[in-house]
Design a protein that fits this description.
- The chain is of the alpha/beta class.
- The protein has one domain: Alpha-Beta Barrel (TIM Barrel), CATH 3.20.20.70.
- The chain contains nine helices and ten strands.
- Strand 4, helix 2 and strand 5 form a beta-alpha-beta unit.
- The radius of gyration is 17 Å and the shape is globular.
- It starts with 16 loop residues before the first strand and ends with a helix.
- The chain binds phosphoenolpyruvate and manganese (II) ion (MN).
- The site of manganese (II) ion has 5 residues, from loops.
Length: 270
């Protein structure tokens, strides 16, 4: 990897990103919640479901990067206030996406982790802006990005002084159309040999299909991931965005139980 000063692995020291009382990169972290914050009831109910199922953090988009300008764009500030309420009730830290440099500093008043989505991975102004904040960043891999390009984006954030970057493999575009993306599992051990930063997996956007999420979560654990981020909805058929990939309460509980069990077993093997 050329030109990496801060992101490159030198020695065996690994970064652990602290988010409230959660340590990403130490043990196994589960982040779950709806694709979008749709309204208060849906978000609070889903927050309770993921808390009961064993999640460590709550995800939910208040600003949504949608392919169509006519699709639901998110509730914005109203959505962030709903997330704040969900955190108050459940104690789960909030992971939420930021789309625009102009919104970064005020979103920090609500978010515990700033998510940079796949479509914005190489938005260098946005990377520099979140790099100036005192807030952990979840940096998703761009859908057409190489590992080197991705790590250079992490470098942009680290270079501004923010050391708390969590990488997220969320699948890349290939010729395959059965799955929404192709989850690149080799990225997990590869990233571990290139950088000290923690990496989590998003098997939800990585497959786009509920039936594939548990198997690919387990495969990610076997590949050495530090955690997973998945979409859960209290009633998936009603979800405003990404309904075909949202887990039910029972599916999420099964996923959390199985991944934690496999993670424990993996640690016994190595
Ligand atoms: C999301 O997490 O809801 C999302 C839009 O993900 P990605 O940026 O990976 O497509
Ligand atoms: Mn989504």
């Amino acid at each position: 990897m050329k030109n990496l000063k801060f992101a490159v692995l030198s020695g065996s020291e690994r970064t652990v990103v602290r988010v409230c009382n959660v340590k990403v990169g130490e043990g196994f972290t589960i982040i779950a919640g709806p694709c979008s914050v749709e309204n208060e009831e849906q978000t609070l109910e889903t927050a309770r479901i993921v808390k009961a199922g064993g999640a460590d953090m709550l995800r939910g988009g208040a600003f949504k990067p949608r392919t169509s300008p006519y699709a639901f764009q998110g509730l914005g500030l109203k959505g962030l206030k709903i997330l704040e309420k969900a955190r108050e009730e459940t104690g789960l830290p909030i992971v939420t996406e930021v789309l625009d440099t102009r919104d970064v500093s005020w979103i920090c008043e609500y978010a515990d982790v700033l998510q940079i989505g796949a479509r914005n991975m190489q938005n260098f102004s946005l990377l520099k802006e979140v790099g100036k904040m005192n807030k952990p960043v979840l940096l998703k891999r761009g859908m057409y990005s190489t590992l080197e390009e991705w790590l250079n984006c992490a470098e942009y954030i680290l270079n501004e002084g923010n050391p708390d970057v969590i990488l997220c493999e969320r699948g890349i575009r290939t010729f395959e159309t059965y799955t929404r993306n192709t989850l690149d599992l080799s990225a997990i051990p590869a990233i571990k040999e290139l950088t000290h930063l923690p990496i989590i997996t998003d098997p939800t956007h990585g497959t786009g299909r509920v039936s594939l999420i548990i198997p690919m979560s387990l495969a990610s654990v076997a590949a050495g991931t530090d955690g997973i981020i998945v979409e859960v909805h209290r009633n998936p058929v009603e979800a405003i965005s990404d309904k075909e990939q949202a887990l039910t309460s029972a599916q999420f509980a099964e996923l959390a139980r199985k991944t934690r069990k496999l993670y424990k077993l993996m640690n016994e093997i190595v």
